Amino acid sequence: MKSCFTFLPLICGSLLAIAQSANPDLPIPARQQSQSASMAFPTSATTGVPDGVKLLPSGGIVVTKPGTVLEGLDIRGQVYIKADNVTLKNCKITTKDFYVVRIDKGIQGAVVQNCDIDGQGGSGTGIGGAGTFLGNDIRGVVNGINLEGAVGSKIIGNYIHDFRGGPDEHFDGIQIFGDVGTMKNIEIAHNTIINDGSPIGVSAIFVANTFGPVDNVSIHHNYLSSPGNFPVYNMGTYTKSPITNVTWSDNYVVKGYYGYEKITADSQGRLPTMTNNTNVDKGLPPETAPDSYSANKANDGPPPTSGTKGK
Fold this sequence. Notes:
This protein is mostly beta strands. The chain is built from four helices and 25 strands.
């Protein structure tokens, strides 16, 4: 991979995106309009690069300069973020590298927004690391998003689907597996996750204490489906590390082959709070499934772009 400085002429992205930021009166691309106007669960029509954005070609990029903005690029190769406050927006990233987008542990302020992320069946993870991940279309991977490190994260409005990998893969939509510094302060809201990984996609969202403690996680208003398994996993038995203050609320959960959820307490007997989730045997498509996500919340604007360090 090449350093991001090799691609300085490309970083600003398409002229359309630049013009819109300078002149808010210009027409909004159709897909962007549908994202703001519709409160249906996310689909390919409402996530990823907005319609009308022209992309410039690029190879893989390693970002080492804080505050870098990558926008309007068709990137063939991995994006590796090694600096704080980096934004990756309105880009298409295609690669069979293990990570399509990789964010180093401890990095703060990473934003990945309205990107098409495609692992082509050869990537283990669509986005790996911590940050703010908004409105992305993630496909062709084993794991959609794998949170890593002790930095807070917001995962909102993404579409994670069409999982691909080998026959023995462990497919998960979003993984929260703990960290030695406590993985905490995480919000996962209004995503559509359909884990159709072959032969049995494991989870839509998997919370566990595999690598350390987990604390303060809110999982709400998501469309969760994993036809071959359980859509919801919250496992406290892998280690003695605590799992505390985890809430699953107002999610639309489609029954998997084994049921809706698999939940075990941590070593101190703590269980997640489950409230007001809708469990259905056969789910409606995301476009028509009942969605109670607040329009006011959606119009609050993007969440903060930096997380909170764990201690």
